Amino acid sequence: MRGIGRLIVLLLIxxxxxxxxxxxxxNPDEAVQKVEQKLKTKETxxxxxxxxxxxxxxxxxxxxxxxxxxxxxxxxQQELGKPVRKDKSSYGYxxxxxxxxxxxxxxxxxxxxxxxxxxxxxEDLSIDPVNIxxxxxxxxxxxxxTKEVSISEGITSYRFQLTDEELKVRPLVxxxxxxxxxxxxxxxxxxLSSVRVVTQDILLKQRPYEIYYRGQLPEKPELTDAxxxxxxxxxxxxxxDITNVIRKRHDKGSLSWDDPIAEVAFSHSKDMSDNNYFSxxxxxxxxxxxxxxxxxIYYLSAGENIAAQYTDGPAAVEGWLNSEGHREALLKDGYTxxxxxxxxxxxxxxxxxxx
Length: 355
What we know:
Radius of gyration: 20 Å
Distance between the termini: 45 Å
Number of helices: 11
Strand content: 25-35%
Helix content: 25-40%
């Protein structure tokens, strides 16, 4: 399965006087079909010879962040204190979130009392030999970026296949036999934007790249509607926090959370999921302007980012950051408020400049 999301940006300018839609030759039905095709995991008969192991030897991982993998929740809390909050994920672990709300953001995935994954961005992260803001070439000098990353356990084999674009935007490296790292790059600045460290089992559950395998894949948990509600609320907060950290990095003002705008965003994400389409415009032809008007929301300017089928909220934000139209909305000077709505794996950001 390839974990590439789909995203579009819509801007409303001048109190909703006109639209600027950056969607190119977008066809909603065709996009949904492509998303569904990408979600199909490929099972192949792999050759009996051992698959290449792209483990990078002699990596001097000085950063403290890497050693958090495998740490107990008690050790994590003893060293970092109580988290700002705990958010459920759709992969069986709970996110323990630590953030300054401006220049640093970390979330630790805790499952069965142990840290199994980490997402981090912002300043003063202990991730040597790399650092946020480092160039792609500088990071590549420490890690081997390859288009294939393989995992072998007895007769079971897995191979992640990265496209040229994925190798440029979010390469995957093997840190040791059980631990991997995704490096998310801002391709507009050619600098490292965030990192995700993950155990092998969680990586195979998430499957963020196209995967070929022999054997069986770990299954994601089946969630109830109530559990999904908790997961969605957590991702909404994560997207909000990470957006502000990124805006701070680019010397933009922080946005305030707005509940009515978030309700509009959530309704659109749910509508896209329920009715199997992907567009700024609902099936009745209404867009953001109409949705805001129906809720009596007044504004000077507004914009909308949407995405689908990303691994989680942090991955969706990094996707928006690397698309020109979405980046424009993400970093726009005039916006003052943000509402985020997530339903399953559909994500909507509604930005607004209030009078």
